[in-house]
Amino acid sequence: xxxxxxxxxxxxxxxxxxxxxxxxxxxxxxxxxxxxxxxxxxxxxxxxxxxxxxxxxxxxxxxxxxxxxxxxxxxxxxxxxxxxxxxxxxxxxxxxxxxxxxxxxxxxxxxxxxxxxxxxxxxxxxxxxxxxxxxxxxxxxxxxxxxxxxxxxxxxxxxxxxxxxxxxxxxxxxxxxxxxxxxxxxxxxxxxxxxxxxxxxxxxxxxxxxxxxxxxxxxxxxxxxxxxxxxxxxxxxxxxxxxxxxxxxxxxxxxxxxxxxxxxxxxxxxxxxxxxxxxxxxxxxxxxxxxxxxxxxxxxxxxxxxxxxxxxxxxxxxxxxxxxxxxxxxxxxxxxxxxxxxxxxxxxxxxxxxxxxxxxxxxxxxxxxxxxxxxxxxxxxxxxxxxxxxxxxxxxxxxxxxxxxxxxxxxxxxxxxxxxxxxxxxxxxxxxxxxxxxxxxxxxxxxxxxxxxxxxxxxxxxxxxxxxxxxxxxxxxxxxxxxxxxxxxxxxxxxxxxxxxxxxxxxxxxxxxxxxxxxxxxxxxxxxxxxxxxxxxxxxxxxxxxxxxxxxxxx
Length: 555
Hints:
By secondary structure, the chain is of the alpha/beta class. It has three domains: 4-126 and 250-428, P-loop containing nucleotide triphosphate hydrolases (Rossmann fold), CATH 3.40.50; 129-245, Domain 2, N(10)-formyltetrahydrofolate synthetase, CATH 3.30.1510; 444-526, Formyltetrahydrofolate synthetase, domain 3 (Roll). A hairpin with a 2-residue loop joins strand 5 (109-110) and strand 6 (113-116). It is globular, with a radius of gyration of 23 Å. Pathway: One-carbon metabolism; tetrahydrofolate interconversion. GO terms for molecular function: ATP binding; formate-tetrahydrofolate ligase activity. It catalyses: (6S)-5,6,7,8-tetrahydrofolate + formate + ATP = (6R)-10-formyltetrahydrofolate + ADP + phosphate. This is Formate--tetrahydrofolate ligase.
């Protein structure tokens, strides 16, 4: 089979104005970024249509390091729905340069189920990530200048909570000292970098409902504390308007197309293991305005991405998915069934069956949210008919819908079975109201307990002294009602990335709690998770090149 980038190059793209017009967006509202990419103004969102149309979430079992193809399936489901005569759109997150040049090599789908132009989307796209990076670091520069200018007065700050970000994987920048070289170069301080996807600005961009809400949230960002223990915010620094100016274009959803010319909104890019893992509310609402079916995904397994999608994004935006699709692969099932990672492409009936426990835990969790659940088996070339039949039979025994998909190899045609099951499930099964894991007014400890025990299966939670200090600060600030965003490994229900399958009765350690006062959520750091990833031994950057004017190595 051809590579992803070969398939992408051979696809004859429609002009983006034509894609928009087919969707129903007037041509004079399309803000072109070249021939095949555009931004769409947010005043076109019709919230009455948003409430009337069908939102579908695509999530997954706990992935292996190669993933389970969730983005590919999300795109393929939209293609399949259009194949059977439904008007469907997909809404996805933007790829980050860090993983693209680190391990993934790209994040725009795969095979004949991609969003295009994939080279642009995987690289600089419309500059949204750069805008977030610039906005975040502009705040840092202005904050450092404030500290420098007030270093001899009582208006200085005793505690700083704001660092820098960069859209690369660079472990050397996690902890640094800045301001060295004498007083002319600033005030020396311990600081560090997070990856741009973990920036509070990224979370704000994805949760803001309009430009005024964006400005309000930016103004509320907590930067540190004064010497009399009062919170110091971006609004106190007097720069909320200036930072909003840097983000005014980035706020607008990006419109692209799939390999079969289906419209796709690709906007925002928080990771689900260190942030809330969903594309922007505005892109989701834009898609729901113009399509009868809007398919979106939440990052990594359902314990991370789907949980945050429901408890944070849906709670804040008033969204309620009609159903959740859980993507499973034979390779991930076998990994969680105790098969060594080097052997998961080989047939192993017993290992596959043991891995059903992981699938069942995710199904159970989604039903706790009141969701109707469908399992789709994302077929790889190494999968056998026996393996597919075993998964289908197991889902039948569990009373859960099952559909095979081959969207990677066959595009929309390979998603027809899944699309028909989705439509049939929505039309013939009554939906329940969305149920949250915790209430807004629950204490923070109770929120953490309900997620850790109810979703992950932990038996106990312990807090470091730093986390205990943060709990007191949260109480003093009166923000205990904020939802929690747990940052932990994506490879396990626990905080141990090698604890495959379903681990029960484990202990979770809360190492820190980061107050995202602008995003209005509390980021709970568990275990050894890093908000600035490192690079693998052989980064994908070694394989990315430009040859005769053509980019190679992206996927």
